[in-house]
Protein: Aminopeptidase N
Amino acid sequence: MTRRGSDPYVPGHGDSSYDVEHYDLEIGYRVDGNRLDGEATLRCRANEPIDRIDLDLHSLRTVKVHVDGAVARHRAHLGRLTVQLGRTVPEGEDFEVRVRYSGNPGPIRSRKLGEAGWEELEDGVIVAAQPHGAPSWFPCNDRPDDKATYDIALTVPKGYHVAVAGEPAGQTHGRSVTWRYTQQAPMPTYLATVQIGRYEVIEQTGAPVPVRVVAPKDRPREGFEAAFGMQPQMLGFFAETFGDYPFESYTAVITDDDLEIPLESQGLSTFGRNFMCDDWECIRLVAHELSHQWWGNSVTLTHWRDIWLHEGFACYSEWLWSERIGLMTVGERAEVHHARVRDDDGPDLLLGDPGPELMFDDRVYKRGALTLHALRARVGDARFFDALRTWADTHRHGNVTTAMFVEHVERVTGEDLGGLFEEWLYSVELPPLPV
Ligand SMILES: [Zn+2]
Structure:
């Protein structure tokens, strides 16, 4: 029996009866006309005896499916592609599914979650898939707790730069250009991304790993320097504070278009042109997205209800950077945002389970950061940062839950913290400002 919809926040996505171990994606894309032709080869492993699986694939037409080299029966319905395996695959056994597909990709719309996925720009593409947009461009098992490695090849017309969540693995030049990337660190589907545009690459030096910016040539010099110029120092600071950077490199893509919000992918973040400015609003988001490489991308939630483990931590990282560069201290930021959360007249929010409509509510970010600040006030700096570093290290490239975090912090600090987390995560009322 195939179990559908493993996460109530993103219903109808994911199939827990199997895991994907590796995705091999060969994609051709015409920017002019928004036409995608893809072939996805998935190495899968059965988690129970199964004779069919569900893949997620939205609005793209399935041309042909093979299982272990043989043509397979399949049926597409409401974003689900059910594939008959032709036999019962025993638990623990691998099988290979190959899907040829094509169409005009676009964002996936959800009433509760909004839009996510493949999106055309003025002259290019972004993929911002969190949390439900991955099936807009490849067939996948769309669960955050099913991490896999990837090889991605994208063939586009000459003149475009292609950035992918992964390390460059060569290019082939012909009438068009094929860009190859490989992602060897396990990655959930929603953190896979493709960015296409008329960009140039700026290498930044001084960080423990390669740091680059992929941006339009005609960028404003001052705004660019103010917002992105300190990325290597920022990465170094976060590595000192949270432990080694978890991936091989870091890339910030700045699109030619303005974007409403930036977004993290694995080893890569996407910003709009409007984020090249010297305001704290720009600088803090550069810090926020970079810190997601630890909080969210390496250490990833198992269920979307635990989103504070990503956003609260990333917001707290902004405050740490603020203090580091001599702007407001963490304590001052905490005070400001405690007052704002207190005065917010939005619907009641339970930080530990905010529901899909409120999962990206600003209070998840700010109250999440305040929760960490309360923890720090309680256990002291040394034990707090030790707990963060060991959390990042123990669960590097893994999946976690809030219960695991509470258990971890109690073990590392030797304190009973049930009351603190109960107050901050599981009651609506805002606790007093931690001092
Ligand atoms: Zn974030």
